[in-house]
Design goal:
The structure is a single chain. The chain is α+β, with helices and mostly antiparallel strands. It is built from 18 helices and 18 strands. The chain has a six-stranded antiparallel sheet. Strands 1-7-3-4-2 form a five-stranded antiparallel sheet. A five-stranded parallel sheet has the order 15-16-14-17-18, with helices on both faces. β5 and β6 form a beta hairpin. α5 crosses α6 and α14 packs parallel to α18. GO terms for molecular function: sulfotransferase activity. InterPro entries: P-loop_NTPase, Sialate-O-sulfotransferase, Sulfotransferase_dom, WSC_carb-bd. Belongs to the WSCD family. It comes from Eudyptes sclateri. Pfam families: Sulfotransfer_1 (PF00685), WSC (PF01822).
């Protein structure tokens, strides 16, 4: 008996360390997930408070104020009418009749967390690829490999344009992006960042210091830590695309002193738009200005803001200055070069004392507003969620914890007392619900830049979507009006029409000061990377009369609530439709 007991004791001693190790590993793995998005499992998923929780009041609770959405997990809104801020009642439907996209919310959330975890782990794996591989693989790519160079983020040589893609960056992708914008050199760093320019960096580095594998191409090298793998872009491809990327900006009154206003100039007999654009592109200027046989290059500035265009007839006969109103007007073209005066961004060096939300209903232009704010202030914006597509395009605040206070403001689609009162103040972005619903439906079925198919629009998913999300559009605004501590109301349509004045309001609300030239740079780069290409016209009206009646009633309710809080009401274009 004693011998058996001794053997058991010996076995337990051997397994003690193993059990301890497994327990520690389990706790560490769980912490990695919880620290990044601990609230996701509790909240409504990756797009804010779920639509089927908005503006619902369980039986017996009508008339007691807006109900916390978390109490309504199993309800689904019908086409009921908002009747006021303190008496909101809608009939509940059986959950089994909910649309498929609502029923699958939890599985989508689990997939999102799983994808984030795998990306996080893969990003932490040490690079084993040696720098000499960069030389080994250059023959596989178009363009000429120039070498490994030092990259100083404060004095960057290749600063003409910047691109990020933390999942699919390749050498060819970077070269094509730079060639499309008429740059001579393409440089890659950190395995996922692409920089363009027309001058080689001054400081060469050892080949082995460029040792970061491209995120989208195994075996290829995309620079390193503060190191650039630089390629000379294939001239033929760049030449083919230059003409297509020159955009006519208009006819404008010329400044009094052209040589003082524009840093570079060229006098060329028989000057053409292509000649001037190519000259300015090589000088890395976004504007090409033509007056007679003179070409000028520069940026939009306070002296030449491009705000007051003139009749194009005043610029007719531009190559004959005597017929050009005595040389008082000039033609302006946008070159393929990016205006880089406002592209530098960073995290706050000290934690923000004021926790600011950038709140909106999905599809209301939150991503575009973040683009404008980041470029105007020079600081990253954060997010209550994690969107890999946004992170890959340069929104680095996506991967930062939303409560870190290292970002200038935090994107959220949440509503409800608890979620709103976490913030000290908020910019509330409101967009026409008709446009918002269509934008979010497009995003849900085709991503940030795509369009839902006609089959999607004509399916039963669309009316289910409208019935659920229309009430959420209204409840989102009403909740922020009720629980928000300090609000700045921005209407998407006003921001689009009067960009600089509205952007100034937002920047001042964030307690930041910016120069006029930086704001003009933002205006010059206003679209960002997530503007859908044109308005895809449908040959049918997606909204039925029943849908219109429902949405219009929500619009009137929100308009009344805004005016009741002494805010400007909704733009008149919202109704009628």
């Amino acid at each position: 008996m004693a011998k058996a007991f001794f053997r058991l004791q010996k076995f337990l001693r051997r397994t003690q360390f193993l059990l301890f190790f497994l327990t520690a590993a389990y706790l560490m793995a769980g912490s990695l997930l919880l620290l990044q998005r601990t609230r996701l499992a509790i909240q409504q998923g990756s797009r804010g408070t779920s639509a089927n929780q908005a503006l619902l009041v369980p039986d017996g609770m009508a008339g007691v104020g807006i109900v916390d959405p978390r109490m309504l997990q199993n309800t689904h809104p019908g086409p009921g009418l908002l009747v006021g801020m303190d008496a909101l009642q809608e009939p509940a439907l059986d959950p089994q009749h909910s649309p498929r996209w609502l029923m699958s919310r939890n599985s989508e959330l689990r997939q999102l967390r799983r994808r984030w975890f795998h990306r996080f782990i893969s990003d932490q794996e040490p690079m084993q690829t040696a720098g000499f591989k960069a030389m080994k693989h250059t023959a596989e790519h178009k363009g000429t490999y120039m070498g490994c160079f030092s990259d100083d983020s404060r004095e960057r040589t290749l600063k003409g344009a910047v691109f990020y893609d933390l999942r699919k960056m390749t050498v060819s992708h970077c070269q094509e992006a730079c060639a499309e914008r008429a740059y001579t050199y393409a440089g890659l760093a950190y395995g996922a960042e692409c920089y363009c320019g027309n001058k080689l960096p001054a400081t060469a580095s050892k080949p082995e210091e460029c040792n970061s594998e491209c995120k989208g191409e195994k075996g290829s090298i995309c620079g390193g830590v503060n190191r650039l793998s630089v390629y000379r872009v294939e001239e033929l491809r760049a030449g083919e695309r230059r003409r297509r990327n020159v955009i006519y900006r208009g006819c404008f009154r010329a400044p009094e002193n052209l040589t003082d206003t524009f840093p570079a100039s060229l006098i060329q007999p028989n000057l053409t738009v292509e000649m001037c654009s190519e000259f300015c592109s090589k000088k890395e200027f976004p504007l090409a200005v033509i007056q007679g046989q003179e070409c000028y290059c520069g940026y939009p500035t306070g002296r030449f803001s491009l705000h007051d265009g003139a009749d194009r007839l005043l610029c007719s006969g531009m190559h004959n200055t005597s017929s050009n109103a005595e040389g008082k007007y000039c033609l302006v073209y946008q070159t393929p070069v990016q205006d880089t005066r406002c592209t530098d961004r960073k995290f706050l060096t000290t934690k923000s004392k004021v926790f600011v939300a950038l709140s909106s209903f999905p599809g209301a232009g939150n991503t575009w507003a973040r683009h404008l704010i980041e470029h105007a202030t020079g600081y990253y914006t954060g997010s209550y969620y994690f969107d890999g597509a946004l992170y890959n395009k340069g929104f680095k605040g996506e991967k930062d914890h939303w409560r870190s206070r290292r970002t200038i403001c935090v994107k959220t689609h949440e509503s409800g007392k608890t979620e709103i009162e976490m913030f000290d103040s908020a910019i509330l972005l409101i967009r026409n619900p008709y446009k918002s619903l269509m934008a979010e439906f497009n995003r849900k079925y085709a991503g940030h830049l795509g369009y839902a198919t006609d089959r999607n629009w004509k399916s039963k998913e669309w009316p289910d979507f409208v019935n659920s999300y229309a009430s959420w559009w209204a409840s989102h605004v009403l909740d922020w009006l009720k629980y928000g501590k300090r609000l700045l109301i921005i209407h998407y349509e006003d921001l689009k029409q009067s960009l600089i004045p509205k952007l100034k309001e937002m920047v001042e609300f964030l307690n930041m000061t910016v120069t006029e030239d930086r704001l003009l740079c933002v205006e010059n780069n206003r679209d960002g990377n997530f503007k859908r290409s044109g308005a895809k016209q449908k040959d049918f009206e997606p909204f039925t009369q029943e849908m219109k009646d429902l949405i219009d009633r929500y619009i009137l309710t929100v308009d009344e609530a805004l005016r009741g809080r002494n805010f400007t009401g909704l733009p008149r274009e919202y109704v009628p439709r």
